[in-house]
Structure formats: C-alpha cells, structure tokens
Amino acid sequence: MTALELMAKLKIDAHRTASGTQGRLRGVLTSQEITKYVEHCLKPGKEPGPGKCPNELLKTMSDEEFLIVQAWVNELRKC
User: Fold this and answer.
1) From residue 47, how far is each of 10, 42, 43, 44, 50 by CA, in Å?
2) How far is CA 6 from CA 44, 61, 65, in A?
3) How far is CA 12 from CA 23, 48, 53, 63, in A?
4) Does the pTM exceed 0.85?
5) Nearest alpha-carbon partner for 68 in 42, 37, 34, 43
6) Crossing angle of helices 31-41/63-77, nearest 10°?
7) What pLDDT, in 10s, does the model give residues 11-46?
8) Which CA distances in Å does 76 have to 29, 46, 71?
C-alpha cells in the first residue's frame, strides 16, 4: 500500500483529492493533516526508510522542526 493510499484509507485528506487526477491532492498539506499522519501511521521501533529518519524523531520534533518538515513535504509534493 502506498503512502497516498494509506492516507486515503485513514481519511486524512479525503476532502482534498482532486477528481480525475488519479488521487492527487489539491493544495498543500496542512499541519493538522501531517500531525494526524504522524500520530496514526508512524509506528515506534520500525526500521527507518531510505532517509534514515526514525519514526520516533518525527513524533518528538519541536514546533520549529515541524514547520521545516511541513515545508519539505509540501515542496516534495510539487515534483
């Protein structure tokens, strides 16, 4: 299951999926959407992915770090 499919299954972004675009989202991800994803989807103790960032790091980040991650995620979505 892809991350986008998982987000759709959890209804994290159901109201923002653009019709006719194979599930692509409209606009930027809000802080509430990212927080919900981190809280419900990132399990502690799992092996880090290619970026080598452990889930615990994302779950314990400061507000300033969260804003950096949010900007990074939204920049990646433009690609």
Assistant:
1) 22, 11, 10, 9, 10
2) 17, 22, 24
3) 13, 22, 22, 21
4) no
5) 34
6) 100
7) 665 555 555 555 556 678 888 888 888 888 888 888
8) 11, 23, 9
Q: Do 27 and 73 meet the contact criterion of CB atoms below 8 Å apart?
A: no
Rounded-to-integer distance, Cα 50 and Cα 38, Å? 17
Q: Which H or E run includes 8?
A: helix 3-9
Task: Report the distance separating Cα 19 and Cα 55, nearest Å.
Answer: 32
Q: Where are the domains of the chain?
A: 3-77
What are the tokens at 55? 């889930």
